[in-house]
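Q: I have 86 residues here and want to know how they pack in 3D. Can you give me a structure?
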Amino acid sequence: MSSLYELVELTNGEIALKRADEEFEEPLVTIRFSTESLSVLGKSKFVIAKAMIEAAMEAASEDVDEDDEYEQAMFDEEMNEIHQLH
């Protein structure tokens, strides 16, 4: 069974990747942009954070053993289910 993920903005301003069904669980990943970066990015910080996480997941998937196609298919399905919520 795959999980649904969401990007959320934490109270400290960081962007976090969390499982959608786990409200109080520790985030899987957090991204903190500097004040200078935020002044340039504006509202597109979620788009940038999502692209960063997708790139990391893609890089990680390259390390998955090619013989295990089932695991790769599940990983790809999870990647496609990342949603932005803010």
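Q: Anything worth noting?
A: The longest strand covers residues 5-9. Helices lie at 35-41, 45-61, 69-80.
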